[in-house]
Inverse folding.
């Protein structure tokens, strides 16, 4: 082939391959690994891979091929036929092939596959004669017709299922394998009629026509709804498309000595180092994952064919050492001979990620850096997901109604719904949802995404439901065969026990248990250890977590703080590795009991004297809060933000609540209503809040600063180190900061004089107004730290209301025709806009104050992509909610590794 002609097709077979594992972007994961397995001597049926570049061209050019592709495919097909000594669809010596997708990143079940391509009446007869197995030949033909009709031509899948079931019912057969040759021919006749009714033409018999139609279908499936949604949900971006793998068929449906299976080199739920998988004899590959028959566990294969089982065990060890990671493999046994059809890095739960990577480090297979770089930071918080509360189960005397397979770990309780659409609808109303299906399919992805848990009555540990739920970190019980679901009347039952749509059920993805009851959930094992409810040596999960976080902290540079407003949150955050508080929102301390009454007195005050009297009531409460928080921090720094929200947020907005408040304060309802009206603002976010409150009412600042410093002194006197950092919010002009800082220092010096003791402190500001960012050099002359409040900075920079933007942000982010923003700017920092302001402010601040401390405290502080940005900009720390602290620590280490 000349240098100026693009190569689109790559052959593998006979121990040689034109591709390799390093070519995943071009050949897709499946194609690259088929080539790699061929090269290392594994029994891989020969075939060829059409590159992702061809798919990209097809997608961009109205479903047409690049020049020369068709000829290149036919040339490689001719080569494959010579290697196999058979011809595609031949009437004497037929070759059959599979046509399968395979992108650079695994997307299980999202794109299309066609098996047994090349079948027609003539090749079916030839195959029957060649194999001396007539039933196998016609079974292969009916499978091909169903897959081709559904996947390639769009005939509804359920129509084929109903036609098949009608024959089984008439013949009084339970399983497909009970049908004989004549039964299969009857199924094929019904399929043929069904196809013509939907498509308007006869089922194609030309194998070349079949081949190119199937290739088109696989290319087209790259942009089907479920594949697009899967990529969005899993943040898969920048890929060219899917490759197409055309591979000579091997058959697991040739009788009792044939079979097919899916296996993992380690347990994908727990990470335990044991061979884990399932198989079915006399079946083809799709049978295992489709959940139509419940498969056997891989260890039982030893009693069926010990030689093949040992061969698989040896291949398991070889592949894990070769790829240095847990592998997900597919295999077929044809009349006692083993063939490998796929290997890829296995999808697994975060529990499995953690254990497998720690054990691989300890065995010397991989480095600490490799382990830390692999574990998905976005999934890490699922380690802290709740589990079903066994005490609540005992208290209620609840018994499991049935037990399925523990397909994906975690406990879940919610209202049961039987369709993905209904689950999405109810979840949008704020309900906790459990999705129950006979079996899930890719079309159910939306319902699975919003569900607290998933349950299926069919399928094994490698079924669609199990694999997708594990990837999402969603609890799943599969193969609960005792359950009968009636979609029409919206119910499911086990024996005489019935639940209807909307009733509560609970599932345990760790054990497979199902309860028709509302069961409370409780903290995860790690949280129980941290709370002292379980000993660390009783929890292997905690031990692995502790070791892994040791690797993380050896690598990361960014400090990680927490956003916490209570002693309890502070305690948990410190337990989870927080290195201080990056944001303590003092307004959160003002609600409840006497506190809100005193705050309202302060708001309703008619003069400074009345206001100071109300603030005097708040002072001891604030001081005690800070004492408890500083004590929990035990020497770690705490950034405390002075009062930020507008005052009207503390007043009731309905008549009943105003009446209760009037009785509490001994004033009239009219007076409260008048004050509320007086404080009303058309745009409170840009109104009377933040430092503006302290400037107009400096006595509020005086009380809060006094409470902070007095608490710090009190805790310090007890022998605990304290590092208070006072943060002035919403500064937009350096004069605002200097005015409020002056008042804060005056109060601090008064307290020092009264107590005869001093303590080190810092005063800085929150950068959340764009003007503050672009004049940061002026502010930094007197500020000791900047904390970027990216929630408000995003609102003001983008002109989006965080509370109202949901109505249009979805299309802005998810619509491929628009996608003005790559990610939701309130979840991941808008690097080109808001991020640029953060970078400008950081550089300006350090230009006049090289020692200024820089951090981020918006919700973005727990987002891995934002943390990567913070590492690049050179911030000192990120701050996030307590349970996102481990995520932030891991993301900070991964940011170092990326750099």
């Amino acid at each position: 082939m000349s240098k100026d002609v693009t190569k689109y097709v790559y052959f593998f077979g006979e121990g040689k391959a034109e591709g390799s594992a390093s070519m995943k972007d071009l050949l897709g994961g499946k194609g690259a690994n088929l080539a790699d397995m061929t090269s290392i001597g594994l029994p891989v049926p020969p075939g060829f891979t059409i590159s992702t570049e061809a798919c990209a061209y097809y997608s961009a050019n109205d479903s047409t091929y690049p020049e020369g592709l068709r000829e290149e495919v036919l040339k490689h097909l001719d080569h494959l036929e010579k290697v196999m000594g058979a011809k595609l669809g031949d009437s004497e010596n037929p070759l059959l092939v599979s046509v399968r997708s395979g992108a650079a990143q695994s997307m299980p079940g999202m794109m299309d596959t066609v098996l047994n391509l090349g079948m027609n009446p003539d090749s079916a007869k030839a195959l029957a004669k060649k194999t001396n197995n007539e039933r196998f030949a016609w079974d292969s033909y009916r499978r091909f017709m169903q897959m081709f009709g559904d996947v390639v031509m769009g005939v509804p899948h359920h129509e084929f299922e109903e036609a098949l079931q009608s024959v089984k019912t008439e013949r009084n057969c339970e399983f497909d394998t009970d049908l004989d040759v004549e039964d299969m021919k009857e199924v094929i006749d019904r399929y043929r009629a069904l196809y013509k009714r939907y498509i308007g033409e006869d089922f194609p018999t030309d194998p070349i026509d079949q081949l190119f139609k199937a290739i088109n279908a696989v290319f087209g499936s790259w942009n089907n709804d479920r594949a697009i949604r899967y990529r969005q949900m899993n943040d898969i971006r920048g890929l060219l498309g899917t490759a197409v793998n055309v591979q000579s068929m091997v058959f697991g449906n040739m009788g009792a000595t044939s079979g097919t299976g899916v296996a993992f080199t380690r347990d994908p739920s727990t990470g335990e180092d044991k061979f884990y998988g399932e198989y079915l004899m006399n079946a083809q590959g799709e049978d295992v994952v489709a959940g139509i028959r419940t498969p056997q566990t891989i260890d039982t294969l030893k009693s069926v064919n010990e030689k093949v089982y040992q061969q698989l065990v040896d291949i398991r060890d070889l592949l894990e050492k070769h790829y240095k990671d847990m592998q997900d493999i597919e295999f077929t046994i044809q009349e006692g001979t083993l063939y490998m059809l796929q290997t890829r890095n296995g999808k697994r739960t975060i529990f499995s990620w953690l254990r497998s990577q720690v054990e691989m480090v300890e065995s010397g297979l991989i480095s600490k850096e490799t382990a830390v770089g692999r574990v998905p930071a976005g999934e890490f918080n699922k380690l802290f997901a709740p589990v079903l509360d066994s005490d609540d189960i005992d208290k209620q005397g609840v018994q499991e109604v049935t037990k399925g397979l523990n397909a994906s770990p975690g406990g879940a309780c919610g209202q049961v719904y039987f369709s993905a659409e209904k689950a999405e609808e109810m979840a949008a109303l704020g309900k906790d949802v459990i999705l129950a299906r006979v079996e899930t399919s890719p079309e159910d992805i939306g319902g699975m995404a919003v569900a607290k848990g998933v349950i299926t009555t069919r399928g094994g540990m490698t079924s669609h439901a199990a694999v997708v739920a594990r990837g999402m970190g969603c609890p799943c019980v599969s193969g609960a065969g005792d359950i009968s679901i009636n979609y029409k009347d919206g119910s499911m039952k086990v024996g005489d026990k019935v639940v209807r749509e909307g009733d509560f059920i609970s599932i345990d993805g760790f054990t497979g248990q199902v309860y028709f009851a509302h069961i409370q959930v409780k903290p995860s094992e790690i949280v129980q250890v941290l709370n002292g409810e379980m000993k660390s040596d009783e929890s292997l999960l905690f031990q692995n977590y502790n070791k892994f976080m040791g690797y993380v902290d050896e690598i990361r540079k960014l400090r990680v703080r927490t956003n916490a407003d209570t002693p309890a949150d502070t305690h948990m955050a410190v337990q989870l590795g927080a290195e201080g508080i990056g944001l303590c929102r003092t307004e959160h301390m003002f609600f409840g009991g006497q506190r809100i009454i005193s705050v309202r007195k302060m708001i309703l005050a008619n003069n400074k004297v009345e206001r100071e009297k109300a603030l005097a009531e708040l002072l001891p409460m604030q001081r005690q809060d800070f004492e408890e928080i500083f004590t929990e921090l035990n020497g770690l720094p705490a950034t405390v933000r002075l009062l930020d929200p507008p005052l009207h947020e503390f007043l009731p907005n309905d008549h009943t609540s105003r009446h209760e408040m009037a009785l509490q304060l001994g004033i009239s309802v009219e007076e409260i209503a008048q004050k509320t009206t007086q404080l009303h603002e058309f745009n409170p976010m840009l109104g009377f809040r933040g430092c503006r409150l302290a400037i107009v009412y400096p006595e509020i600042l005086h009380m809060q600063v006094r409470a902070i410093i007095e608490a710090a002194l009190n805790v310090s006197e007890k022998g605990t180190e304290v590092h208070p950092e006072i943060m002035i919010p919403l500064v937009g002009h350096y004069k605002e900061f200097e005015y409020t800082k002056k008042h804060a220092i005056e109060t601090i010096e008064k307290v020092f004089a009264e107590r005869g003791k001093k303590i080190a402190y810092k005063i800085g500001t929150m950068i959340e107004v764009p003007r503050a960012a672009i004049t940061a050099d002026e502010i930094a002359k007197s500020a000791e730290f900047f904390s970027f409040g990216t929630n408000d900075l995003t609102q003001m920079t983008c002109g989006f209301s965080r509370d109202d933007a949901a109505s249009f942000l979805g299309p802005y982010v998810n619509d491929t025709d628009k996608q003005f923003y790559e990610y939701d700017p309130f979840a991941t920092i808008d690097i080109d806009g808001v991020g640029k302001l953060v970078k400008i402010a950081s550089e300006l601040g350090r230009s006049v104050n090289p020692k200024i401390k820089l951090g981020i405290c918006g919700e973005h502080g727990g987002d891995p992509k934002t943390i990567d940005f913070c590492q690049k900009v050179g911030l000192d720390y990120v701050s996030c909610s307590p349970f996102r602290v481990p995520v932030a620590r891991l993301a900070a280490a991964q940011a170092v590794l990326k750099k």
